[in-house]
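Page 47, continued from p. 46.
Same chain as before, 246 aa.
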Amino acid sequence: MAKRRLKNKKVRYAAIGAALATGGVIVTLLPSANAADEKTPEQIITMCERARVLNGKTQSVFDFGGHPIAGPSHESDNCDYVETNFQTFDGPTEKASIDFPNCEPNATEPAKVSITWKATVGQGSGKYTATQQGAGGGLFGFLSGAWLKHKGTTDMTVRSVTAGDTENREVPVGKVLHMEFTPKMQRMTGEWRVRLDADPGSFAVNPSPEKNFVASELVEGPLILPGAAGAAGIADGAVKPVLTDC
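Result:
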């Protein structure tokens, strides 16, 4: 029997290692639980949303649309969001203007053009449906609060931010000019950590140990530059002219 338990633990560790290697969602069960105790990430998120204490705040069932009689009721004792990493990186480069050609057969001089470019970058809002609740409380509120602690971020209720300008450029003979924009992005990773307290049991209820569940979370969004005179912020990034042959 002891050898069989050891074998099961090895299988569990191998599965976690495979998830780490492939960048998959990791669901950790501590202490070890049998198959009946395992939860999907979505189930863990629901347990978190319906925790008695969420990020240090005691919740009523009314906070998540429940009712003492009609339900749903509390599904866990505690849930905390814990940030594990924050990084910046370059987002995908996109074409940000129309083409400006200088391709006339008799052209001999560079063409002077006024080129207007504009780029829109999507704003992250969490990977789970339960976190995408808008500007109010719940899981989305905690994610947005953690996101706003970082320099250069904007409210996650904003779906997108833009960048743009008008520049005077020259287009050489036989070339086509357009502008490209590469946004500067930020990524916050973390975990929703859910706990079910140990139950000492009673005459009619068997005792049960403490159970812990973890679901990973990831939020991405653009780095934001302050807008002029109190206007909305604009997406930070690098813009460059690109020349191609006619």
